[in-house]
């Protein structure tokens, strides 16, 4: 991507570097991600690093593809595209391996799955969601190979830089695993995206801003941010019910998110600013369910404060 595009979001009247805008500039039209489920599990579920998974995790709530009957990748693509075309005026897609850990297999199993997804004529890119401790050297080489063939992002679940919070959520890795994955990912041709959660229990505002500062220091390409939210049938649902975990109020989240955006570099793509899940799976906070209203409120907060992404970032960008 050219530096020109990175700098133009200001001129387009945006206050942060929105991924949807970036994709439109890059591909000349609206692009949607199609969620694909290759039926992977996760080393944090099957006992390899831990059992039970992250306290907030029910993969069915994260991704439409895991709520549907098992189909092969080509069928899932066709089905997802039909649904998205009906909902949006869109004709090009990014194949998004979303639920669970999408690098958790041998290269000879991964290759045909990724291959099938990019073979479709309407697919312009590939996105792989995974854990930072689950990218073996030969898998990293495979990701690099696919990045040479199509636009590609790899999403690492960082969540926070604070090891005590990672322990709290039963993550099964610490922040050093994220730093290691990023260093091994550099220069391989794919965009590096980090997932971040705001509002974790026992994290102060200063703790969350420390995560923002680390995102800035790590010199990555993109970030996906959401508030801690709760879905049914998880350990966290019990913790929320008992009052052990208190979820952020709407205005507190919006204000914290804007503080976070101010501290990350202007050239980091912002892929997501709010979390949500289908109402059937959702516990709270209820304000998340009106995603459009929250997105408008984030914009309003940026305008009210006359601020923007990177305003207080202390890291110089090229
Ligand atoms: S690493 Fe991801 S898939 Fe695995 S338990 Fe945690 S949230 Fe779920």
Automatic annotation (TrEMBL):
This is Radical SAM core domain-containing protein. Gene3D superfamilies: tm_1862 like domain. PROSITE patterns: RADICAL_SAM. SMART domains: Elp3. GO terms for molecular function: 4 iron, 4 sulfur cluster binding; catalytic activity; metal ion binding. Residues 26-263 form the Radical SAM core domain. The lineage of its organism: Bacteria, Pseudomonadati, Planctomycetota, Planctomycetia, Pirellulales. Keywords: 4Fe-4S, Iron, Iron-sulfur, Metal-binding, S-adenosyl-L-methionine. Its cofactor is [4Fe-4S] cluster.
């Amino acid at each position: 991507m050219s530096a020109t595009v990175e700098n133009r979001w200001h001129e387009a009247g945006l206050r942060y570097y929105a991924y949807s805008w970036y994709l439109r500039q890059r591909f000349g039209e609206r692009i949607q991600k199609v969620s694909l489920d290759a039926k992977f599990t996760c080393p944090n579920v099957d006992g390899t690093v831990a059992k039970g998974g992250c306290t907030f995790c029910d993969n069915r709530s994260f991704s439409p593809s895991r709520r549907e009957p098992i189909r092969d990748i080509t069928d899932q693509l066709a089905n997802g595209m039909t649904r998205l075309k009906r909902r949006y005026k869109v004709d090009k897609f990014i194949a998004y391996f979303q639920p669970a850990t999408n690098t958790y297999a041998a290269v000879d199993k991964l290759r045909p799955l990724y291959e099938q997804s990019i073979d479709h004529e309407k697919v312009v890119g590939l996105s792989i969601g995974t854990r930072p401790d689950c990218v073996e050297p030969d898998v990293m080489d495979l990701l690099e190979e696919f990045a040479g063939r199509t636009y590609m992002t790899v999403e690492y679940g960082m969540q926070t830089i604070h090891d005590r919070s990672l322990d709290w959520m039963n993550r099964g890795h610490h922040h050093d695993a994220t730093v290691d994955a990023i260093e091994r990912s550099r220069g391989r041709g794919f965009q590096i995206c980090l997932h971040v959660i705001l509002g974790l229990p026992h994290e102060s505002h200063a703790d969350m801003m420390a995560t923002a500062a680390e995102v800035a220091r790590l010199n990555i390409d993109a970030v996906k941010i959401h508030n801690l939210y709760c879905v049914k049938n998880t350990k966290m649902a019990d913790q929320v019910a008992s009052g052990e975990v208190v979820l952020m109020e709407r205005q507190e989240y919006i204000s914290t998110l804007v503080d976070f955006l101010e501290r990350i570099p202007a050239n980091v793509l912002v892929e997501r600013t709010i979390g949500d899940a289908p109402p059937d799976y959702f516990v709270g906070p209820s304000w998340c369910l009106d995603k459009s209203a929250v997105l408008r409120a984030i914009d309003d907060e940026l305008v009210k404060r006359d601020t923007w992404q990177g305003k207080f970032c202390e890291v110089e960008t090229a």
